[in-house]
Design a protein that fits this description.
Layout: E1 2-15, E2 18-31, E3 43-57, E4 62-73, E5 77-91, E6 94-105, H1 112-116, E7 133-148, E8 152-166, E9 169-175, E10 178-183, E11 187-201, E12 204-217, E13 223-224, E14 231-241, E15 245-254, E16 268-278, E17 282-289, E18 323-330
Antiparallel strand pairs: 1-2, 2-3, 3-4, 4-5, 5-6, 6-7, 7-8, 8-11, 9-10, 11-12, 12-13, 12-14, 14-15, 15-16, 16-17, 17-18
Length: 332
């Protein structure tokens, strides 16, 4: 049984060109094993924090955003998290922004690796024996937006980023059939770029996205992070007639990935279609998910009887194929 709570209070003041936001928050995360066991993996975390944020319009072209957060955790002490962002309006259609900051994450048993294992074989552990993950990073983005004639608009956002994670908590094993967590002796770094395009013509909108994700395990000879595609593409075409029709066609590409043993997977495409028709008090919709019927079993043989051992199966593509669903929405 897991119970999490979050409470926050804020107060804002200042002027339009120089505004302030101050606040405080309390976050709790408690997990209790649902059955009596000598392998008790229960934990209870409590974190209280205060923060200050300032937005300053230095000139008509330059703006500055600064902030700092102080988090005090019951088991991990004080975390000091500053951040800074500067934006320059080079042209009414063009803005540039650069920023960076620090972050952290407390250890938890709920990770992608343990969920893949269905938490089987995970030993009990004391969270206090692990260090919190620490991160720092920066980003730079360019945003351009313009109108083309009376019917067309075009916008593009280009983002570059770098993040380094220190003290990453990794799952090790199995040793004697048992898995355990530890802080890696090294770091994890992620760098890349993301491009977002938007083109509109009357009631039509086209969204195109490309992401390059280069994640290296500094604690493991700078190898690529398994099950993380380096290249990803998405495209969505939408027709929307206000309060009447909404029709969309979507397509997503996922590049090749590495398995845990560093054999390479196939790349693949997903294609979907949805339509909604609105009336005065009722809407009808239908959704064709993955009508290209892309699934992992099309690329490799999967013995589901053997995959009852979670370690035996690494999921890198959809397990379900073509799915159709529809429904009715009533509005009163």
């Amino acid at each position: 049984e897991q119970t999490a709570t979050f409470s926050e209070a804020t107060y804002s003041f200042g002027e339009p060109r120089n505004s302030w936001l101050v606040g405080m928050n309390i976050y709790s995360d408690q997990f209790k094993e649902s059955h009596s066991s000598s392998n008790d993996r229960s934990y209870n975390q409590l974190t209280a924090g205060v923060f200050v944020q300032q937005n300053t319009q230095i000139t008509d072209l330059w703006s500055l955003e600064t902030g700092i957060r102080l988090d005090q955790s019951r088991n991990y002490g004080l975390q000091t998290l500053p951040r800074l962002s500067v934006m320059y309006k080079a042209h009414p259609k063009l803005t540039l922004r650069i920023g960076g900051g620090l972050g952290y994450k407390l250890p938890t048993i709920f990770t992608e690796d343990t969920e893949r294992l269905s938490f089987q074989g995970l030993e009990s552990f004391n969270l206090n024996n692990l260090d919190a993950e620490q991160s720092y990073g920066g980003n730079f983005d360019i945003n351009y937006k313009t109108a083309i004639g009376n019917d067309w608009t075009f916008s593009v956002n280009q983002l570059f980023y770098y993040t380094q994670l220190n003290n990453p908590v990794v799952l090790t094993g199995p040793v004697g059939g048992v898995y355990s967590f530890q802080n890696a002796n090294g770091n994890l770094s992620s760098k890349g770029l993301e491009t977002n395009l938007k083109l509109t013509y009357q009631d039509f909108k086209l969204f195109v996205n490309y992401a390059l994700i280069d994640t290296e395990l500094g604690y493991n000879a700078n190898l690529q992070k398994p099950l993380t595609a380096k290249h990803n593409i998405g495209a969505v075409l939408v027709y929307e007639e206000h309060e009447k029709w909404r029709i969309g066609l979507e397509s997503y590409y996922t590049g090749k990935q590495f398995r845990s043993d560093y054999t390479e997977t196939n790349d693949y495409w997903l294609v979907g279609f949805m339509a909604m028709r609105k009336f005065e008090h009722i809407s009808l919709y239908i959704n064709f998910e993955n009508f290209s019927d892309t699934r992992q079993s099309r690329f490799e043989n999967i013995n589901f009887s053997n995959s009852m051992n979670p370690e035996a199966l690494e999921v890198w593509a959809p397990m379900d194929g073509f799915i159709v669903n529809g429904g009715i929405i009533l509005e009163f």
